[in-house]
Specification:
Elements: E1 4-8, H1 20-32, E2 37-41, H2 45-58, E3 63-65, H3 71-83, E4 88-92, E5 109-112, H4 123-134, H5 139-156, E6 167-171, H6 175-178, H7 182-188, E7 193-196
Parallel strand pairs: 1-6, 1-7, 2-4, 2-5, 3-4, 5-6
Helix pairs in contact: 1-2, 4-5, 5-7
């Protein structure tokens, strides 16, 4: 509670809206300035690349984007920048929300653009969803929401790797407060200090 705060800022658009990408382009520089070592997690490659391209044109920010260099190179450059007390910004997708170890000064500003919902594409997932439906259940609430909660816990876990880590987690997806399932997702997270802006 004393080490990390979870900020849910005022956003005009939900992630499903076409204007959401433009709003990210407009507002991300302000959120990036909250810390010296920033990781921005995206749900789609397309959105990540579009936002990175726009921010490079309109700001002086140096952004290291997943896919442009190897993961190892990005992490090495990022850590080197942090060691020199230079602002460092990494853009990544879901794979950067797991198994990425950036302790201490290497990450103090985590920005999650949207909830990591996955589309059930494998036959196993589809079969599970059909089974839940056949039993009169809601596959979204009993499968998708817990799965998303687990991924969000992993993503927020990038920030606090040990007892001395601290920083800010900014979640730009207001569905956690506007949708019925949002409370279940928020309540699954560690007890970060929550700041919800209206």
């Amino acid at each position: 509670q004393n080490k990390a705060q979870l900020v849910i800022p005022q956003m005009d658009n939900e992630p499903s809206a076409d204007q959401f990408t433009d709003e990210l382009i407009e507002k991300l520089p302000g959120f990036i300035d909250q810390g010296s070592a920033t990781l921005v997690l995206f749900s789609s490659y397309w959105q990540m690349e579009k936002v990175a391209e726009a921010l490079r044109k309109k700001t002086k920010l140096t952004i290291h984007v997943q896919g442009e260099e190897s993961r190892q190179q990005i992490i090495e450059i990022h850590k080197s920048n942090c060691d020199k007390d230079k602002q460092s910004i990494v853009f990544g997708t879901q794979s950067f929300s797991e198994g990425l170890d950036l302790p201490g000064k290497y990450l103090n500003n985590l920005i999650i653009t949207k909830l990591p919902f996955s589309v059930p594409t494998s036959p196993v997932e589809e079969a599970q969803a059909e089974y839940v439906t056949a039993k009169g259940g809601n596959p979204f609430m009993s499968l998708s929401v817990p799965d998303t909660s687990k991924k969000l816990i992993q993503a927020t876990g990038r920030l606090l790797r040990n007892e001395s880590d601290e920083g800010t987690i900014t979640l730009l997806d207001r569905r956690v407060i506007s949708k019925r399932y949002g409370k279940q997702i928020l309540d699954s997270l560690p007890p970060y200090k929550r700041i919800i802006q209206y």
